[in-house]
Recover the amino acids of this structure.
């Protein structure tokens, strides 16, 4: 596949690195030589030029591109570049935007006519992940499929868990209401077999159905975690605004922002919300005490500084907050943040890159998430008529090592999958993929794939 990306910022460079590992034909365009120079160690062609130069787009091979991605910091540049790329012959285009109005479903045909196949607003995607996490205070990461018909939960295991130090074959057999698809232990990712055991400190990924979420909470020993009602958010950027606008009605949100003018803007943007905006520094212990940190169930640090967010979450934990969320945009800090046990980690560029990456797959992929902690992806594939995955029971499919099918949704009902399960055409199938290229997996789900 040929992919052209304009914008060597955080999202563009991360997506380029991801594609270079997949050995895709990728070219990265930016008008800043220094930004492009940082990509020299990766298998990515770079081209220093204006993203909206027709000559440059032609020379970069846009007329033959399977996917054109506009992810510069400027929304108008991204939209214009995609319009030009479509006119030149690019098969699919996607633009990063920062205007929420453009995401309205009624406007999709309008943008499609302009030549934009998809719009990505990273802050909105991050806000969805934040609020999904806040709804379950005892979960590190949550991913719902088909309105929660199937749910994947990433849970840190403590001493109270009743499923520790027992072979998984005795815990989650074919008739049990959950599967464990991955375990993060120290710096290692384990794709578990029946003889593997869960240990204290593991980050375990459970696949289950929504009716069994309370049961999972019990067996992992998290029943004493109180539900989130009071939330303090630090930093008043776009991600905070989108998160505050979409928190459930039963949650009360306070936002702490250092800049006085930004506080005024936040009050305008959130005037119809049950949200209090406070001018101050979220690291000020006295201010946190004054604003009721001891009676707060969740602390969300969303400044642009990863170190500030990590330290603020550590402080909040010491002050008794159970649920902490930190935005960590510098990927070099992600493993450190996890080792410090700060809680949920949000990274906008990996979230955005996942949504863009799923457009590259030929199979019917409805959703794709990157799990930073376990260096893996979870993808929702739809099984095509006459595809290989429908020919045999799961145990006989010959799936590559590192690939696990966790569950499926059939006619709106979530079902867990075991070795004897038979996947049918039209099923939405949840595939966990570690250290495997997703384009090696999609062939199982494509119609009349050649073997």
């Amino acid at each position: 596949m040929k992919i052209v990306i304009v914008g060597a910022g955080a999202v563009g460079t991360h997506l380029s690195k991801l594609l270079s590992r997949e050995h895709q034909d990728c070219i990265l365009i930016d008008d800043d030589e220094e930004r492009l120079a940082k990509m020299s160690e990766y298998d990515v062609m770079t081209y220093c030029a204006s993203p909206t130069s027709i000559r440059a787009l032609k020379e970069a091979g846009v007329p033959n591109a399977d996917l054109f991605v506009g992810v510069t910091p400027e929304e108008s540049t991204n939209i214009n570049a995609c319009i030009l790329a479509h006119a030149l012959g690019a098969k699919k285009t996607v633009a990063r935007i920062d205007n929420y109005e453009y995401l309205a479903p009624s406007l999709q045909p309008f943008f499609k006519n302009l030549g934009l196949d998809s719009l990505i607003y990273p802050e909105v995607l991050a806000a969805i992940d934040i609020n999904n996490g806040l709804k379950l205070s005892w979960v590190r990461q949550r991913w719902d499929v088909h309105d929660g018909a199937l749910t994947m939960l990433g849970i840190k295991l403590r001493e109270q868990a009743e499923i520790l130090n027992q072979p998984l074959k005795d815990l989650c057999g074919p008739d049990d209401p959950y599967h464990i698809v991955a375990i993060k232990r120290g710096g290692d990712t384990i794709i578990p077999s029946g003889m593997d055991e869960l240990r204290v400190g593991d980050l375990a990924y459970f696949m289950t159905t929504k009716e069994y979420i309370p049961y999972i909470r019990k067996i992992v020993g998290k029943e004493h975690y109180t539900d989130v009602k009071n939330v303090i958010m630090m930093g008043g950027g776009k991600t905070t605004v989108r998160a505050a606008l979409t928190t459930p009605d039963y949650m009360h949100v306070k936002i702490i922002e250092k800049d006085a003018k930004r506080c005024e803007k936040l009050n305008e943007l959130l005037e119809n919300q049950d949200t209090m905006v406070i001018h101050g520094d979220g690291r000020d212990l006295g201010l946190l005490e004054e604003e009721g940190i001891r009676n707060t169930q969740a602390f969300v640090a969303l400044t642009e500084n990863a170190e500030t967010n990590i330290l603020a979450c550590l402080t909040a934990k010491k002050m008794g907050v159970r649920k902490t969320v930190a935005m960590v945009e510098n990927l070099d800090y992600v493993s450190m943040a996890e080792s410090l046990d700060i809680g949920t980690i949000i990274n906008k560029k990996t979230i955005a890159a996942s949504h863009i990456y799923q457009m590259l797959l030929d199979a019917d992929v409805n959703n794709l998430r990157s799990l930073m902690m376990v260096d893996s992806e979870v993808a929702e594939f739809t099984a095509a008529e006459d595809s290989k995955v429908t020919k045999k029971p799961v145990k006989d499919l010959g799936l590559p090592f590192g690939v696990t099918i966790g569950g499926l949704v059939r006619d709106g009902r979530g079902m867990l999958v075991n070795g004897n399960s038979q996947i049918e055409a039209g099923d939405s199938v949840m595939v966990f993929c570690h250290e495997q290229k997703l384009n090696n997996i999609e062939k199982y789900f494509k119609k009349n794939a050649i073997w």
User: Anything to note?
Assistant: The chain has four domains: 2-120, 137-219, 230-321, 356-444. The two ends are 20 Å apart (CA to CA).
